[in-house]
Design goal:
The complex is a heterodimer of chains A (392) and B (290). With 392 residues, chain A is an alpha/beta fold. Chain A is 46% helix and 11% strand. In chain A, strand 7 and strand 8 form a beta hairpin. Chain B is elongated and about 80 Å long. Classes of the chains: A alpha/beta (392), B alpha/beta (290).
Chain lengths: 392, 290
């Protein structure tokens, strides 16, 4: 090989190495096997142009579409003199990776609690007051009530049949493989029949807790209640909303209720401020992965339903919640008052989508409402309107 | 190295021959997957033709397509193999009745072949399509990881079976959840974007032959206008092909093309709220259609 060529190759190798290192610096993690793939691919099909090099690099080095932008930036700065027109790639939605549905699965990872909707809520000044909320410590009485709620929940939550069959003493289905396996052992003689059934498991639960100013005096108890639900049921997701939607499931996984609420105060910045239920629901439903948390779940909205401004978004959002979820239950502190009627424009519109509308303002009333859940789950869909018309 | 198409142009031509229009990125991904012997991991919005890559590639390579459709609760018995217990039992009874030797009931005769075992046992090389892996449980990914490492399956009663020729593997995901990094690390990753208008027109021409050139242009413009609306579900290529075919049927029945397009809109947009939104923007959406 002539000396000039060798020098050329060495420079190219340096350049590639620099590119790979700058990828790491810009946050695109490229494991060693992927680098090896990249170099091997270059050796197999030497790219004829920059575009060829781009695609070879992208296919071999990238593992997530979210990394595309930093990747393109790094590639452009190393191989292109000017940034080219970017191909538009639309993501379904940015979201936390992994299985948001299973609270336990996220425990190991250190995902920062994510608050959606920056930009949508921040620009409307006057309503949003960002402040750190403090929650009082739970007293002995509250802790007793929470224990009672945790004990009542497993029986109160609606269930669905699990997909996988489980061996059972007497099930509707004959476990033919097992029968045959045992028969093989006894020279083809069937001595005993084995059965399987589909066990019932609790449906996922989605709690949407209103922490806006109008709910100020109730939000501590409601978040404590959410803590009890997270502890008592296997698949629970909790979001708070005021002017923005915030996922607080991770925080509520802390076994101590006071510590959990304290860490919520760190991330829920819109507490005791304005209410935009419609926007919050749009944020929840506009994102495919968050929407999948609603599907088949028991959805409980803990809110007074006092929406600022136009209620259409809230009504539409509640309607979609009702369509996606297993049951949609609305617990409002206002409904504790015997004289309450859902006549505000917002609640009146939402009512037709609800399966139940009950009064919950503290742990006592929450416990009572939990005990009513089985009746709601057994009843017909969208029964709230009927119940409240009959009451009137 | 698999006997694959040589150059990118050649591969592109052969895919077009099967009526699949791939862009430069996908062609690179396929060539590298074949050359490096890596699985090809495809992500993208629903209906951009991820599964179709598997189907078409099998035809282009002249390989048998073995498809494993993933779903929640998919387990080894449905992905690998299962013993045919009733058949074993019958064989035992028959042997007993005849008074002959029972023989080995754990023979390949009594093995029910599921997709992964089929991919391993097939004498000719196959193309294994693992479709919608995001639907399967994450435990299944770990299992698949092991399988993709060495393409072998161990059956305790029979021993280890190894693929005579490693299969070409295409994995697709709709991205309803993030697939584990360990799996993606072993694959070549490609995100299939929605096609640019020119390529979509080519696709429409190939898949809906009855549509005239001007009509196809109007249709693709309308589809792109609809995709730019804030919809719950943006239509993919599959939907626009359906739309073109549906509208072509109506147009053949005597309806003028713009009317046929609007009548067949339900083939493109499949959500009531989205339909309402498209209708409210009908002016801009169908302006190109005239």
């Amino acid at each position: 090989m002539p000396a000039a060529d060798a020098a050329h190759t060495a420079r190219a190798a340096d350049h590639l190495d620099g590119f790979l290192r700058s990828l790491g610096d810009s946050g695109v993690r490229v494991p060693v096997p992927k680098r090896a793939d990249f170099l091997q691919a270059l050796a197999l099909f030497p790219p004829t142009g920059i575009d060829g090099l781009y695609w070879t690099a992208r296919v071999t080095l990238l593992t997530r579409i979210e990394d595309l932008e930093p990747f393109d930036t790094a590639f452009d700065s190393w191989f292109r003199n000017e940034p080219r027109a970017r191909m538009e790639v639309s993501l379904p939605a940015p979201d936390e990776p992994g299985e948001a549905l299973v609270p336990g699965a996220g425990r190991g990872g250190e995902l920062p609690p994510e608050s959606l909707g920056e930009g949508s809520g921040l620009d409307a000044s006057g309503i949003e007051v960002v402040s750190r909320k403090t929650f009082p410590a739970a007293g002995a009485e509250a802790r007793d009530l929470l224990r009672e709620i945790r004990a009542a929940l497993p029986r109160a939550l609606p269930t669905s049949e699990a997909r996988r069959l489980r061996r059972s003493r007497r099930g509707p289905r004959l476990d033919l493989p097992q029968v045959c396996r045992e028969a093989n052992r006894t020279a083809g003689e069937v001595v005993r029949l084995s059965w399987r059934d589909r066990p019932r498991r609790p449906r996922p639960v989605l709690l949407l807790v209103d922490v806006s100013g109008s709910m100020k005096q109730h939000s501590t108890d409601l978040l404590r209640f959410a803590h009890a639900v997270v502890a008592a049921a296997p698949r629970v997701e909790v979001f708070t909303f005021g002017t923005q939607l915030t996922r607080v499931t991770e925080q509520l996984l802390d076994p101590d209720v006071d510590r959990a609420l304290d860490s919520i105060a760190d991330i829920v910045l819109d507490a005791d401020a304005g209410t935009r239920i419609g926007t919050a629901l749009d944020e929840l439903l506009g994102n495919a992965r968050r929407r999948s948390l609603v599907r088949g779940a028991l959805v409980v909205v803990l809110s007074d339903g006092l929406e600022r401004g136009d209620c259409e978004a809230m009504i539409r959002g509640a309607h979609r919640l009702g369509l996606l979820g297993h049951r949609l239950v609305w617990w409002s502190p206002l409904a504790c008052n015997p004289g309450y009627r859902p006549v505000t424009h917002g609640m009146h519109g939402v009512l037709s989508s609800l399966d139940a509308l009950a009064g919950v303002r503290d742990l006592d009333s929450a416990l009572a409402a939990v005990r009513l859940l089985p009746a709601t789950a057994a009843g017909p869909r969208r029964g709230a309107a009927r119940a409240w018309t009959a009451a009137a | 190295m698999s006997p694959g198409p040589g150059t990118a142009d050649d591969l592109g031509r052969r895919l077009r021959g099967e009526r699949y229009y791939a862009d430069a990125g996908l062609l690179t991904a396929i060539r590298l997957a074949l050359a490096l012997g890596r699985p090809l991991f495809l992500e993208g919005e629903p209906g951009v033709g991820k599964t179709e890559v598997g189907n078409v590639l099998a035809r282009v390579l002249g390989r048998e397509l073995v498809r494993l459709q993933c779903y929640e609760g998919l387990d080894a018995a449905q992905a690998l193999y299962e013993w045919n217990y009733p058949k074993q039992l019958l064989a035992l009874r028959a042997a007993e009745a005849r008074g002959t030797d029972i023989g080995d009931v754990y023979d390949e005769l009594f093995l029910l072949e599921r997709p992964l075992l089929r991919a391993v046992r097939s004498s000719a090389a196959v193309l294994l399509l693992v479709d919608e892996i995001d639907r399967a449980d994450s435990e299944f990914e770990a299992f698949l990881l092991e399988f993709l490492g060495d393409f072998q399956i161990t059956i305790p009663e029979l021993g280890t079976l190894r693929a005579a020729q490693p299969p070409v593997v295409v994995i697709t995901s709709n991205r309803t959840r993030e697939v584990h990094d360990a799996l993606k690390r072993r694959c070549l990753y490609h995100w299939i974007p929605l096609p640019e208008p020119e390529r979509e027109r080519a696709i429409i021409r190939a898949r809906a032959p009855g549509v005239e050139e001007a009509s196809a242009v109007a249709l693709v413009d309308a589809v792109n206008a609809i995709r730019s609306l804030p919809l719950l579900k943006r239509p993919g290529i599959a939907e626009s092909i359906d739309w073109a075919q549906g509208a072509a049927v109506l147009a053949a029945g005597g309806e003028p093309w713009p009317v046929a397009l609007r009548r067949a809109l339900g083939l493109l947009v499949k959500d009531e709220e989205d339909l309402a939104r498209v209708e409210s923007h009908a002016q801009e959406v169908f302006s190109a259609g005239g």
